[in-house]
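Exercise 7. Predict the structure of Acyl-CoA:diacylglycerol acyltransferase from Microbacterium mangrovi.
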Amino acid sequence: MSTPTRSRAAIVTRRAFLTAGASVLALGGAAEAVNAGLLPGRTTLYRVLGLDGPAGTIPHVGGVPVVSGSFRSAARGGIRTGWAVAAPVGAKDLPVVVALHGYGGTHASLFGQELGLDRFLAAHLDAGGKPFAIVSVDGGDRYWHPRRDGDDPAGMVMKELLPLVSRMGFDTGRLAFTGYSMGGYGALRFGWTLGADRVRAVSALSPALWTTAGAAASIAFDDAADYAANTPYGRQERLTGIPVRIDCGTGDGFQTAVRTYVAGFPEAPAGGFEAGGHDMAFWRREAPAHLRFLADALHR
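Solution. The predicted structure, encoded as tokens:
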């Protein structure tokens, strides 16, 4: 009798199977290390391992109308600056939420097929939620604070955008801020710089935060002195009297810095940490809760 021989294809298949098995085991170990904060690349590994939870989806409803335009911003050196306002038809004297985009975004990133706040607002209203207007504007990639070169996106919001919105008939005396990533940081900064006399609420989705100047992205601050002047750490008490909500995904690269920031509040803000990455999938999932939070604060 002849001895059966394994084909080359069978050998390759077995080798691939063993390699795949080893990879699964390695990934399992990596997941534990990532959970313990021992490995870099947290965002990528959480996504690959399916640890980010379900993706949020834009509601399948018609959005509230969005009006848009642009102006030359003196505060930003004369740059053409786009803006948009989403508000229910016929409503007058509505309170205002200024929604700030993240790095690489524009005013349009808050609406339409990206974050979709115009549709989330429509769904909020359909469910009986209290009405308000959402305003967005181009801030560039300057992290929503005055920069050494004279570019001042924060001044643009206060001196140019809000007066424009007020002339449109909205009530900027009832004002709140929200934003994601860089915009989440910006929303917090507007809160602590303006205070409770001016701001009714602040909500931040995955705010881009760094605990030291050396850890910060080079574009976020001009230098260590600029970081010190604009870091949120040590300024949590300045938000006293302002309802604050902060949500961040456990697979987000910023989550450790955000946890440190949240721990510095005299009283813990609303929100928390749950499965999610630093992406639209997480921000869309959290959007309905943030709109309800802002509406309740604006109408209190």
